[in-house]
Amino acid sequence: PLSWLALTAGVRADRNSALDDRVSPRAALFASRDRYGAKLLYAEGFRNPSAYEGFFEDGVDFVANPAIRAETIRSYEAVVWARPRPGLTTRLSGFRWTADRLVEQDTVDVGGGVERLQFDNRGRLQSTGLELEASYRDADGWLAFGGGTLTRVEDGDGVTAIGAPSWVASAGLSSPLLARRAHVSTEVQAIGARSTRVDGERADAFVAWNLAAYLPSVAGFDVTVGVRNLLGQREAVPAPEDYDRGAAIATLPGEGRELYARLGYRY
């Protein structure tokens, strides 16, 4: 409607003969000048249960749930961005996502004191957060980036969701061609501590450092060599519910140090 203001919107309609019919709208409002701007975004989505979740029944362990409904999600986001100087881009966003009627497995009484497993719409998650990111590229070919997110993920009772970190961050640097031979890049990724399914046990915060070198021309070949998780410490990953074989397991060990090499040839 104005030179600095724009609007986009859309809608999707889904018809399903056995499950939910859904109408999913989305819209965004943009305001921008040459070097700064803002936008507001709204969207809805859904996921119908799979055939296994809704209709599987074996007469032994599982009973079907023909009344099961679709999972839904609704998202709001506000973003401001700026390019304060050539090569530098920054972005700050706040968001709120609400996922409702999440499909979860539970036990139900089918009569005569007999219990069976059944999927039903029992879960709810709400994520509220703030994200900041920036990147810089100069005319010589140097590229630097960094960003971080603060988030609170809660279940339907307002309790912090299991396995959800309150913060994550990353930063990296990539070089132009050095000594006419190689590009070098490095990245640091960090994730905050997370709760687990076992009371009193948490997955510790984790930092991974990655490093790589790319040689674009070696006797007609291009070569990449690198290392992931250079520090070698394994991440403590919260274990999923179906991993237990007896006693409850709180965390699983993540990947260790990994060396890799790649060889390419142009023809």
Describe the 3D structure.
With 267 residues, the protein is mostly beta strands. Helices cover 2% and strands 62% of the residues. It contains one helix and 16 strands. The protein has one helix at 51-55; strands spanning 5-14, 22-32, 36-47, 71-85, 88-111, 114-137, 143-155, 167-174, 183-191, 194-195, 202-203, 206-218, 221-228, 236-238, 251-253, 258-265. The strands form three sheets. It has a twelve-stranded antiparallel β-sheet with strand order 1-2-3-4-5-6-7-8-9-12-13-16, with no helix packed on it. A hairpin with an 8-residue loop joins strand 8 (167-174) and strand 9 (183-191). The longest helix has 5 residues, at 51-55. The chain is globular and about 80 Å long. The model has no long low-confidence stretch (mean pLDDT 94).
Topology:
Blueprint: E1 5-14, E2 22-32, E3 36-47, H1 51-55, E4 71-85, E5 88-111, E6 114-137, E7 143-155, E8 167-174, E9 183-191, E10 194-195, E11 202-203, E12 206-218, E13 221-228, E14 236-238, E15 251-253, E16 258-265
Antiparallel strand pairs: 1-2, 2-3, 3-4, 4-5, 5-6, 6-7, 7-8, 8-9, 9-12, 10-11, 12-13, 13-16, 14-15
